[in-house]
Design a protein that fits this description.
The complex is a heterodimer. Chain A is mainly α. Chain A has a single domain, classed as dinb family like domain (Four Helix Bundle (Hemerythrin (Met), subunit A)). Chain B is 51% helix and 9% strand. By secondary structure, chain B is mainly α. In chain B, a hairpin with a 2-residue loop joins strand 2 and strand 3. A 3-stranded mixed beta sheet of chain B has the order 1-2-3. Chain B is globular. Chain B has one domain: dinb family like domain (Four Helix Bundle (Hemerythrin (Met), subunit A), Up-down Bundle). Chain B contains 6 helices and 3 strands. The chains are: A mainly alpha, B mainly alpha. At the A-B interface, helix 1, strand 3 and helix 6 of A face helix 1 and helix 5 of B.
Chain lengths: 173, 177
């Protein structure tokens, strides 16, 4: 399944895209104040620390997507990552990014086109080529929550880094 | 499958979640913002709808220049948001469907302000960034809805209000709309 040869063009491109996006996420995660880990903008919202931890754990999901042909929530209990400090969050994040990048680079372009399915028992949420699954479940999903986290920073008067363009606080760069 | 077709498919796959979010924007709160430095609700929602048309000029042109006029509605409400979203999806789809080869994705594209180049990269990178940019602002809008006590749709998984179904399940999408 995994090869040790030179990465294919598709794998190299996906890994570069993933790594560039992760670098932006790290800048946002670095600003999460753990003395406010339990803060939430609304009683139904995820807490500050929990949302940040979820973004970090999503970065590692590409490992599972590369190695398996799907994930069934009915078969695997989800235990959320609960860091106690910014250091723990960022260490976990860095390791997850490195592991996912390595897993992508070790996958052939042919295998990146194989199908991956997210389901809960009989309910299928989606079936996508592995490259599409990484883009949806790791990148898109992570970006979604990173956008939410940027609002959390704003509401706590913490400067928001530039993400897709200048923020009200910082220019691009 | 061609990479251009993959882009068309990804737009379709992610569209129902965006439609659900935009359909819930309340007309009486368009100027509301969660913080004095935040984008107002109506502006953020309009920006999200407009981005669905960006694949048109990313694939069909070699730049976007802020120094040139940009045709953009001045005011949005919930009805015009969905109409505008549909138009922008059509703009992108037309250009993508008329693109014969994936080679175009290797071409350079630039974001400019007149002579100043703000950003330049291959079109395939700009396409990826556009999908990310969409997910980014849609995520922010989900927080805006939450703060306004409007039920948040399931997007990448269940929300505190709604179960997750197949994102392409039109029955669920239509029920939510």
């Amino acid at each position: 399944m995994e090869t040790n040869t030179t990465p294919g063009r598709l794998a190299a491109s996906l890994a570069a895209e993933f790594a560039a996006d992760a670098a932006v996420s790290r800048r946002v995660l670095e600003r999460v104040p753990f003395d406010k880990a339990d803060w939430q903008p609304h009683e139904k919202s995820m807490k500050f620390g929990q949302l940040a931890a979820h973004i970090a754990e999503l970065q590692g999901f590409a490992v599972m997507i590369m190695r398996e042909d799907g994930l069934d929530f009915a078969e695997r209990e989800y235990v959320p990552f609960s860091p106690a400090s910014s250091e723990e969050l960022l260490k976990f994040f860095d390791e997850a990014v490195a592991a996912s990048k390595a897993a992508i680079l070790a996958t052939s372009d042919e295998d990146l086109q194989k199908e991956w399915t997210l389901r809960r028992g009989e309910t299928v949420f989606f079936t996508l080529p592995k490259i599409g699954a990484v883009r949806a479940m790791v990148s898109g999903h992570g970006i979604h929550h990173r956008g939410q986290l940027s609002v959390y920073l704003r509401l706590n008067d913490i400067p928001v880094p530039s993400i897709y363009g200048p923020s009200a606080d910082e220019s691009v760069g | 499958m061609s990479k251009i077709q993959e882009i068309i498919d990804q737009i379709e796959e992610e569209l129902p979640a965006t439609e659900k979010v935009l359909a819930r924007i309340p007309d009486d709160k368009l100027d509301w913002k969660p913080h004095e430095r935040s984008m107002p609700l109506g502006q953020l929602a309009g920006h999200l709808a407009d981005m669905y048309g960006w694949f048109d000029f990313v694939i069909g042109k070699d730049k976007l220049d802020f120094a040139e006029p940009y045709d953009y509605p001045q005011q949005f409400d919930s009805a015009t948001l969905l109409t505008y979203l549909k138009k922008r999806v059509e703009d992108s789809r037309n250009t993508l469907q008329n693109t014969a080869s994936d080679d175009v994705l290797e071409e350079q594209w630039a974001l400019r302000n007149g002579e100043q180049v703000l950003w330049q990269d291959k079109k395939k990178v700009v396409v990826r960034s556009t999908f990310g940019h969409i997910a980014h602002h849609r995520g922010q809008l989900a927080v805006y809805l939450r703060l306004l006590d409007i039920p948040v749709p399931a997007i990448y998984g269940p929300s505190a209000d709604e179960e997750w179904t197949d994102p392409a399940d039109q029955t669920a999408t239509n029920a939510a709309l």
